[in-house]
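Q: What structure does this chain adopt?
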Amino acid sequence: MLSPDARFLAVANLAADAAGAAIRPYFRASLAAERKSDDSPVTIADRSAEQAMRAVLGRHYPGHGILGEEFGLENPDSSFRWVLDPIDGTRAFITGRPVFGTLIALLQDGVPVLGIIDQPITGERWVGVRGEATRFSGPYGGTPRTRACKTLALAELSCTSPDMLGADAPAWRSLANAVARTSWGGDCYAYGLLALGQIDVIAECDLKIWDWAALLPVVEGAGGRMVGWGGARLDAANDGRVLAVGDPNLLGPALDRLARPA
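A:
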């Protein structure tokens, strides 16, 4: 497989810029939030941002596939597929918290080869390209490199919400019992913080491919690992359970904990 060239990355950045321009006018505005079939909220900002990204991608790569959370799949037979989540963390967005993000991934034959996490309010952007070091830009500084953390006892664990755990809550608690501290919230922004060495472990459930595809190149390009709870590489067949670690030495102990419910 070919690595994405500079043109792919340039277009991905243009798509992120377009999404941000669509989102910012709605931030902390009075918005109506609808409920989708999975009970998650959606707003005009989500839909406008995805339409803006689709317009950019369609203009530059009309033959590529595009899978978006809000508007589904087009060109399903293409070996290249862009996977979009216009606002990952809509609950944070509609409550005025800048810990959501726009996610853009490019898959080649089902494998994520490029990923962007963009926070359009804070101006932070993480860019991951398969086989390359993660890049980060933003007004607050930060080095896109995960930190060393020798044992789970020293680790910071994060999860977006206990509501996502369901029947997996006992396994998650087993992991939580082994770490130094646990924090809640963050959606994709937490994975960006892991790539900056602020968080050590993230274990979550119920993620769709548009929730994790862009995160994998960012996390792994910063030195971390990202797999399913059983240890398998993430792919379209993943059951929604995702584990990310900053220090690869934590992967085995974290998987062991998830396999032994509390």
